Amino acid sequence: MNENNKPIKVGEKYTVEIIDITHSGEGVGRLENMIVFVEGTLPGDVAEVEIKTVKKTYAQGRLLTINESSPERVEPECQYFGKCGGCQLLHMSYEGQLWAKSKMVKDALERIGGLKDLAVEPIIGMEEPCRYRNKAQFKVDQKGMGFYAKNTHNLVHIDDCLNQPESAADVIKTMNSIIKDLNLSIYDEKTQKGYVRGVLQRTNLEGENMITIVVNGKDLSQRDAIVEALRKGVPNVKSIYVNINREKSNVILGKKSICVYGAARIVEKIGDRIFSISPNSFFQVNSKQTVKLYDQIKEMAALKGTETVFDLYCGTGTIGLYLAKEAKAVIGIESVNDAVLDARENAGLNQLDNATFYQGRAEEEMVRITKEEKIKPDLIILDPPRKGCEETLLNAISELKTATVIYVSCNPSTLARDLKIMKELGYAVKKVQPVDLFPGTGHVETVVLMSRVEK
Known about the structure:
Blueprint: E1 13-21, E2 26-31, E3 34-39, E4 46-54, E5 58-68, H1 94-111, E6 135-141, E7 144-148, E8 155-157, H2 167-181, E9 196-203, E10 209-215, H3 223-233, E11 237-244, E12 256-262, E13 266-270, E14 273-277, H4 287-301, E15 308-312, H5 318-323, E16 329-334, H6 337-349, E17 355-359, H7 362-372, E18 379-382, H8 391-400, E19 404-409, H9 412-424, E20 427-435, E21 445-452
Parallel strand pairs: 3-5, 10-11, 15-16, 15-18, 16-17, 18-19
Antiparallel strand pairs: 1-2, 1-4, 2-3, 4-5, 6-7, 6-9, 7-8, 9-10, 11-12, 13-14, 19-21, 20-21
């Protein structure tokens, strides 16, 4: 911005053409070469905007009216859109969402990663981009269940969620009645008193439901009445848990879960593999798209049956186990002990005796295994959390000179940062494949194939 002229002023109104959108759903325009973020707008909109804040490099505006609508603008089917913080892009056509997510990946790789002129494959979307989530984490207060509004702890009460299976509406209705009829107290974060903290629903592709009631207590109060009401009010209840969370924090689940009805696990099928799911299990939330994601990994891996695969940040071992039948051996490494136990159980469920899982930090355990056990990987798969990989791990991979690396990312920014490092360490990006696992939101999953090149 020109500091002398100060063309953009707080409180002033401007006409802004929106040219881009962020992952959080804010439209992006320009005024006097300054970026302006405007929530509620889409690329192609021409909007009247009131400037709320002005910083050195950007401004934020409030949408007043839309003079010209984007061709991608649609009426959201969800009545809670704009109130609930779960979705950011439901006012955008699905084709527009896919375009935006592909652009987010490409822009991040160019701007942060310095990977110019890199081809990004067409994003793999869903045929039916709704009712796709297999996991819902409902919050609760005295008025009922719902989700938090964006960037707040203000609860938006809902009757249904179009991202969740249809049985979610039954869970909400039934739990609201249980809390009212049995006079169960609600946990208050400020006073740290009260009983019910939340409800977790997990559903597999068969429609079987696992319901977990999170409580600030030692066990499930009025167990028989709650179990009977849930079985009557919710279809296909496979299991009911109570989760003990007495922590003075906003963490949703405590460490201890007790099954009070039915099976201890529900089983999900991804391709020809089966996976055991408990309340605390790490698992992709979109089972249908996970098959497409994992098939891309399998295609990139191009295994011949002679390779040793290291699956780092492996969680419950889903990716490594998906590849295990095509590999000589799979070594999974994960820092969370419960996830490692689940991975070992899943290996047994699938009768895979060539998959071994270790608990530890990826950057430390990988080095230990290669040195002490003399096992070296032909392929390394990275599936880190949103913060990306530790640079010490990337350096260790380079020192091993592993021929092929596949990076699975849920965050284009940290992906681009890490790919830049990998390029400097002697790896070339061969393929970039975005996959949409979260329709209606700004999140995008990306699979990247890298090969070792001689420097």
